[in-house]
């Protein structure tokens, strides 16, 4: 079964212009064309497009995604290069996840901070609150927020 650009874009939940852009950038060498030059996507192209979307979501530049696709098209001689690239992106995503977790931790701390202030009727409660009265899960974040050293 073949799909038009619009049909495949809908299947991937992207704009048709995204697929046209990928094609223009050389990311779709696997896509067949009709005699009239119309892109004809197959079911098997979905996996290719899914990995392109995945790599894009990790923040990988289009140029590097093109290297990856080109290496895939070259065959098994490039497996090590592809594996190394995937490993680098996995590490980059882990770092992004850590940054997001740190951000969430700060927001959780501030939520507790303002809930406590609301109950006390003032933010001043935190100026006199001893560190041991701060819930354990917020102590490190509180220290970091105040610019205090985390080492004893």
Structure description:
The chain is mainly alpha-helical and 152 residues long. It has seven helices and three strands; from the N terminus they run βααββααααα. The protein has a three-stranded antiparallel β-sheet. A hairpin with a 5-residue loop joins strand 2 (32-33) and strand 3. The longest helix has 42 residues, at 79-120. The model has no long low-confidence stretch (mean pLDDT 94).
In short:
This protein is mainly alpha-helical and 152 residues long. The protein has helices at residues 5-12, 16-24, 45-57, 62-74, 79-120, 125-128, 136-146; strands spanning 2-3, 32-33, 39-42.
Could you name the key traits of this structure?
mainly alpha, three-stranded antiparallel beta sheet, 3 strands, elongated, 7 helices, 152 residues
């Amino acid at each position: 079964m073949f799909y038009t650009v619009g049909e495949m874009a809908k299947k991937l939940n992207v704009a048709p212009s995204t697929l046209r852009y990928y094609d223009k950038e050389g990311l779709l060498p696997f896509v067949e064309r009709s005699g009239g030059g119309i892109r004809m996507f197959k079911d098997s192209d979905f996996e290719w497009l899914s990995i392109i979307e995945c790599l894009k979501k990790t923040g990988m530049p289009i140029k590097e995604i093109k290297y990856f696709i080109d290496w895939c098209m070259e065959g098994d001689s490039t497996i090590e290069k592809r594996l190394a690239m995937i490993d680098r992106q996995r590490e980059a995503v882990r770092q992004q996840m850590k940054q997001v977790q740190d951000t969430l931790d700060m927001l959780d701390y501030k939520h507790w901070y303002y809930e406590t202030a609301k109950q006390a009727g003032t933010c001043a409660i935190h100026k006199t609150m001893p560190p041991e009265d701060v819930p354990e899960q917020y102590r490190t974040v509180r220290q970091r927020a105040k610019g205090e050293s985390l080492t004893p």
